[in-house]
Each structure stands twice: as C-alpha cells, then as structure tokens.
Amino acid sequence: MTFFENLEPLLRAFWYIALPVSLFFLLQTIMTFAGFGGADVETDIETEGHDIGDAPFELFTLRNLINFLLGFSWSGISFYNSIENKTVLIFVATIVGAVFVGLFFFIIKQMMKLNENNSFSLYKAIDKTATVYLSIPEKKSGKGKIQISINGSFHELEALTENDRIETGAVVSVTKIENNILIVEKI
C-alpha cells in the first residue's frame, strides 16, 4: 500500500480504477469461456421494459462500462509520464476507453456473423437472376438446368419454363417453385 501513497492523486486514481476493473474483466472473461455469462445470464440493467441484455449493441451496459474503464485506466497509467498536460492525458485516456468499447462492438458483430443461418433454401432463389446451363424445353415439357448464386455460393439447379424454349447461356429470372423445381422465365 505504500506504493499508492507515494503516487500523485491522478495516477493513484488511474490505479484504483485499473486494478478492480482488470480483476472484474478477468473474471468476466473466464466465466464467458467457461459457459457462464452468455445469453442466458443477464448481467446488464433493465430499463423501462427494455432488456438491455438482449441487445448486444446497446451503449450503456455493464460490459461496456468495464471495457471503457479498462482502456481508460490502463492508458492513463501508460501515458502518465509521457503526457505532461493532465487534461490532455485524461482526454487521450477517454478516447482509448471509447476505442475499447468500439473494438468490443466490432468483435461482437463479427461473432454474430458466425451465428447466421446460411443454410440453402430453394425459396431464396425466387426473384433472383440466373444463367441457363442446360437448355430448358418449352411449356414444362422437360427439365433444364440453371446456375444461380445464393448467399455468395453458386448452385446448379433443375428448372422448368412455362413459355418458349430457353437456350444455354440465356439470363433468366426465377418466378416460383413447383415440386422443388424452379420455374423460370427469360429476361
């Protein structure tokens, strides 16, 4: 404790913030990786019927406060001897704290992309354009094939047309689905 007594008041304040926040952050991280503190555990405050714990991009949450204070306090300690003007030091520490919160938002956004359902469904093809791969006979008299891009990947699918024959290489639009076969028309 004599270490803290010999420090200037601002530096002492940074240390008093940094140590408990770092401990809390460490515990929070361990609990998250151990399976606690996920979506089922609410650690954030509820306000007027709006559950902040369900919205990962809310600004005022306990997790964001911890992230901000972590960046604020440790940058204040790190730059204390480098930046002589204490107002500028507090401003820089505040900016670093805000960057920590922004970084958290970015990481959560990237993790949410991993959770998206990108499974293939024929119904995602409706109203999309495609290229005829194997010619499609007229008036549903036979099946052809089209190549279509859905969710960034190409698929080769069977297709019928209700109109005239569509030759290979033609651009078509998917209008509907019947018996798991795409119905297309030439554009």
From TrEMBL:
The keyword Membrane applies. Keywords: Membrane, Transmembrane, Transmembrane helix. InterPro entries: NA-bd_OB-fold. The chain crosses the membrane at residues 13-36, 65-83, 89-108. Gene3D superfamilies: Nucleic acid-binding proteins. This is NfeD family protein. The lineage of its organism: Bacteria, Pseudomonadati, Bacteroidota, Flavobacteriia, Flavobacteriales.
